[in-house]
Amino acid sequence: MEAALRAIAEPHRRQILRLVWDAELSAGEIASHFDVTRPAVSQHLNVLKEVGLVSERRNGTRRLYRANPQGLAELKAFLDAFWGERLELLKQEAEREERKTREHDD
Amino acid sequence: MEAALRAIAEPHRRQILRLVWDAELSAGEIASHFDVTRPAVSQHLNVLKEVGLVSERRNGTRRLYRANPQGLAELKAFLDAFWGERLELLKQEAEREERKTREHDD
DNA sequence: AACTTACGTAAGGATCTGCTTACATATCGT
DNA sequence: ACGATATGTAAGCAGATCCTTACGTAAGTT
Question: For B82-91, which contacts have Cβ atoms below 8 Å and span 24 or more sequence positions?
Fold first, then answer.
């Protein structure tokens, strides 16, 4: 869980997650969206797989990746628990910002 | 925001945040909760301050820290946006796990 | 079998991170 | 002014991280 949080702290990995969020993509297709080399993306995919945020399926010479909803749900639950008790206060704060943002509408 | 996410990926910093979550504590009081040295904690406090997750107030020779609700709210909003579209699916997955966990009750 | 395609893995380098020890600074009490 | 207390800052180190280039491997193609 700890590890999953560290995993999504990396921008490229968050972007990868969004790519395979609702589409199953091959390693190559994923890599084509980035400016870093294909091996770099492969390593990111490995990290994401090891922390349970994506799953891999082999099809012929390809490896198809997709987000793993269970892993994502667990991570989200961990973070929700972290906000946890203070959630009320955070909500109030969010509303306060909201109002501040909308001040220009007056 | 990016930086704030990286900040909470570190366990000690998450623990610090929980400590100053609803109490204003001095650097020394915070450090006393950890096995790492006081300077290490001081550096963590600096990181948290720079990314806007805690605020610092000086009182005499002391520096008092507390969580910054606005920074926390912004980070939470960022993460909520990240789950975003898939939120529905994540909820379903969470419920599925819930059921699985409770299977032993039968 | 030989070639191509799609990929992972190995090795190494630059930079970042979290920590330590030593030192600097600022405020308070006397 | 002086010593004690509370704290940050500097320097440096070991290990992690993210990247690159080179190489290995496995499945399809001819």
Answer: B82/A8, B82/A14, B83/A72, B83/A76, B85/A21, B85/A22, B86/A21, B86/A22, B86/A67, B86/A69, B86/A72, B89/A69, B90/A69, B90/A72, B90/A73, B90/A76, B91/A73
